[in-house]
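$ run holo --ligand "FE2/S2 (inorganic) cluster" --emit tokens
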Amino acid sequence: MSLTHEIKFELNGVQQHATVEIAMSALTMLRDVLGLTGTKYGCGEGECGACTILVDGVSVNSCLMFAVDVDGRSLTTVEGLAASRRGQVLRDAFVKYGAVQCGFCTPGMVVQATQLLARNPRPDAAAAKTAIEGNLCRCTGYQKIVEAIVEAGAVLEGAPASGLETAQGPGVSGAPGAAGHGGAKLAKEGSR
Ligand code: FES
Ligand code: FES
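-- output --
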């Protein structure tokens, strides 16, 4: 029985194929097979959200998804968002509000925010806070990230950002693995 599989899928709008081991995670495929290192390896256990990508438009912890399950799906990573209007506006807002410090959580946050803005083009602070509750940040205290997401929504809608609500960041103890962070757990792959 072969221990590898050939898979085909769409990656950032381009048809892609890869040879993957049956127990390989989608995160390992992206980083180690395809060289897309924008998606980060944090915990490897679905707890931190650093590895968040979009699969068919839904945010997923790629460390918890088998690469073979990517077959036939459409993936979007932070690299794919960089050229989009939504991604550019989010980047500018994150910089403006100081929502990037060490930057390790940023790709996952931007992907999560992208999903939110696709569903709710003008989110308030509460909606932004809920959207990122499965993504951990050690540096910013979350409020700057929430403000950046609210600002991005306003800019994309062509309205001035106003009335930013005081947002308490989602506690680090907030429920990990929020909605959309599904998938079977893989054995921990070791830190790197
Ligand atoms: Fe932490 Fe995937 S690396 S949730
Ligand atoms: Fe450092 Fe979020 S900016 S973990």
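-- notes --
The pocket of FE2/S2 (inorganic) cluster (ligand 2) is lined by residues 100-105, 137-140 (CB under 6 Å).
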